Records
---
Amino acid sequence: MDNIDTPPSRKLDVERIQHLLETEILGTGKHLIYEPVVDSTNALAMQLAQNGSEEGVVVLTDSQTAGKGRQGRRWVDVVGWNVLSSTVLRPLFPPYQLVMIASLAVVDAIADTCNVTANIKWPNDVLIRDRKVAGILIETSHDRAGHLVAILGIGVNINGHISRFDTTQTSLQTNQGLVTTATTLEEESGHVVSREAFIAHLLYQIETRYLALQQETRQTHGHGSISRFIREQWRARLSTLGRTIHVHQGKKLLSGVAEDVNDQGELLLRDHSGECITITWGDIE
Ligand SMILES: O=C(O)CCCC[C@@H]1SC[C@@H]2NC(=O)N[C@@H]21
């Protein structure tokens, strides 16, 4: 049993996150909702949002019983070792800009807490050394008053070593090839990472860009320098660009070189016949 990482059954210290946000990171106080176990933080946050909850409410947990991934997949976790968070937002700007803000926030929170460089696989997977460390799921809907709400769900593999997880205690073994495709911050930085510190930095990083973009959208309808700056920051972090890739869109497979992204964050793929295809969704391999 020596080589098996057994999860600590430590609960998230929400007061510590509040304290870090208010004193050290200089972000504003947040309305944090913590449940030790939920089906999905996104589902709970969506329920709250549809019932009119204010933006900025953050749902946190130690474990999800039905964590949601992109394109209907499951998101599995090991109790107490991951960051699982969902934030209620009411963006005035389009969802593709939220994709950019969220992935940049994760990249920056990783640099802040671990001093490790992470990159983005289009559109919003966060990778370190080409292995996935975080996933983002944005879901939109309308509340009872008809206003748009967006739930920004973020899952980050914080501690433990993927290759050593005790898969008899988790459903990780259902993820084919996880060991070669995923990683954790502990694995990459060489030290245990505080989930509380990571969450505080993450929320701060989301908030600064989000508020700036909300203000700019009110004033310029999204054509200002902040939108451009965020898009350029995100583009510069995309490890997908310049590579030969395969895009899975359901049963359809497209291959070619990922040349660039357009203003809406869509991927421009040059296929083998020389045609440029605009990719709006799909899984990149
Ligand atoms: O497939 C992906 O890459 C996206 C994964 C998103 C997972 C997070 S964990 C917190 C939040 N709650 C969910 O049910 N999913 C997101």
Note: The first strand starts at residue 31 and ends at 38.
---
Amino acid sequence: MADTVTRSGTTSPGLLASLDPLLREWLPRQRWFAGKGRPVTGFSQVAATELLPAGARIGLYHLLLRAHQPQSPGDCYQLLIGVREALPPRLAPALIGHVTSGPLAGRTVYDALYDTRPAELLLEALRTGARIGALRCERDPEQRIRSGLVPRLMTAEQSNSSLVYGDTFILKLLRRVVPGVNPDLELPLALAREHCPRVPAPTAWMHADVDGDAYVVGVLQPFVQGAADGWELALRELAKGEDFAAEARALGRATAEVHRTLARALPTATLGRAQIQPLVDGMVVRLDAAAQAVPALRPYAPALRTAFTALADLAAEGHTWTAQRVHGDLHLGQCLRAPTGEWSLIDFEGEPARPLAERRMPQPAVRDVAGMLRSFDYAARSADPPAPGWAHTCRAAYCSGYAEVSGADPRTDPVLLRALETDKAVYEVVYEARHRPDWLPVPLSAIHRLAAADLP
Ligand SMILES: Nc1ncnc2c1ncn2[C@@H]1O[C@H](COP(=O)(O)OP(=O)(O)O)[C@@H](O)[C@H]1O
Ligand SMILES: O=P(O)(O)O[C@H]1O[C@H](CO)[C@@H](O[C@H]2O[C@H](CO)[C@@H](O)[C@H](O)[C@H]2O)[C@H](O)[C@H]1O
């Protein structure tokens, strides 16, 4: 397919063809690549913007590329490709490869997020509300962005890539992108409008406009300085043999505050039999697909299915539930505790593998509660020796904290809670099998327990 690089209309045919063999090898090795286990057979260009000319000391392209894979329409990825004669040693981890043909022949291409100049250029574009080629930046006029902040790429395990600027801002660049409203921007903006202090308010954001579709490609937020995430803190307390009840309670309160604000800011719904059945069907479909993909899950599948059908049975008896927008993938790593002791929630993208429309649907708020309860279990199972009693105390404290703010204790609806915990554990089995096979025993141990649990 012909490729076009847009920067005030300039074109550079052949760019993609020359990058193709290098990207086929490099992309599947990236942590954020979602199509693990299947080869990349080629690319098509969704958008390309030249940010710095390839002839300069550092060239820079912003690309949205669809990666073709067998048995899938192919996901679209955001890449920032730097071009240099040679890489200085500090950029060695960023290497993509040496181009042998086409307009960049003889040059070295690399992941430009590791490099200072490209990272500075992104912040400057956000600061000035720039429009460059396909890229369109917007910002909150109330927040000030200083120029000259020094960038560094975060090295944490992530589903996307983040740059921190002078410990003042953090820019998340989404890697797998889809057109449409992205909850990772939508929800923090809605919460900011309601002055919710539990979520850093977006400072600026970047879209790529392609054939009438807008893709959210980056979100800049204030950086919570000196913060520790809930996962680190939980592991630290576990290692010391300390309980985490006070923090779990505070986290329960923070979750309920965010839920209360989301319910005020965005549409809610009532789920009766007609709405619960498709939800349950979705859980069963995901379970079947997971059992197909991960053989270790198969023996548990019939027992796990009863967790879902019990929910459908309750709905058939006339029970209803309230649904609202939720975080969608809440776990300890998504909770940051500032040195003041205040908790913030981050990363409202939802489960990255789910379709966008599904992630944006109102759901029972207990879905997030289930995510956190799973996370306490993860932390307790990672301890040596495992500490199930620790997780149990956290569960109780978190649910109590949640009830203090929301007025509703999630434990009073055990059928819903069990269905959602089971659904999450099934998701985790697939996630770990794909991304971190060594961790697979952690969700599998929960599967074992959930499958054996008596129905209330
Ligand atoms: N506003 C923030 N302040 C400080 N650190 C942050 C902030 N947002 C994210 N982080 C850090 O960046 C990491 C990745 O952010 P996250 O939004 O979870 O990205 P991803 O979707 O790629 O997993 C978090 O685990 C956290 O350590
Ligand atoms: O943070 P992400 O949006 O990238 O979420 C994905 O990765 C998480 C792991 O980094 C994964 O979370 C699972 O492992 C956590 C411990 O590392 C644990 O606290 C969570 O409870 C567990 O689900 C998350 O599921 C995945 O979507």
Note: Residues 11-114 form one domain.
